[in-house]
Write a structure and sequence with these properties.
The chain is mainly α and 148 residues long. The protein contains 5 helices and no strands. Helix 2 runs antiparallel to helix 3 and helix 3 packs antiparallel against helix 4.
């Protein structure tokens, strides 16, 4: 009887260890969206979350398009540097960080001018929650990196 119980415990413990966690699909399995589709999806989410009116939707759509264009430019520049095999110096990284911070502050100011005070507060809170979740996931990935 003791051997049967031990065998059952062994099977249960091995099966629970053998299961892989698959909360999200791999990047290859993820839905491939064009920048325009991503913008539209983001706009729809903001519209439902913040209850945007038609005028706000148009202004947010323009802002999202600007952000997307700037992100594409940044990515292209980064890829060009990567192709040249040049590593950014500490000074260049600091300058880029300052530039990105200024862009973020400008975008925040634009959003503040588009949204009502209540909507802006909710938007900031939602953004802070997403940031915390992202940091938690990053930390979890670091902890589990050696498990595979």
């Amino acid at each position: 009887m003791k051997k049967v119980i031990m065998a059952a415990l062994l099977v249960v413990s091995l099966s629970s260890v053998a299961q892989q966690r698959r909360e999200r699909p791999n990047r290859d399995e993820m839905e491939k969206l064009t920048p325009e589709q991503r913008q539209e999806k983001h706009l729809n989410k903001l519209t439902t979350d913040l209850n945007l009116n038609a005028k706000q939707q148009e202004e947010v759509k323009k802002l999202l398009a600007e952000q997307s264009a700037k992100a594409a430019d940044f990515k292209a520049k980064r890829e060009a540097k990567k192709d040249e095999q040049l590593l950014a110096s500490a000074k260049e990284r600091k300058e880029m960080a300052k530039k990105m911070k200024a862009e973020k502050e400008a975008n925040d100011a634009k959003m503040k001018s588009i949204l009502t005070p209540e909507q802006y507060t909710k938007w900031e809170n939602d953004r802070e929650i997403r940031k915390e979740k992202m940091l938690e996931k990053r930390e979890e990935r670091r902890r589990h990196k050696g498990d595979y």
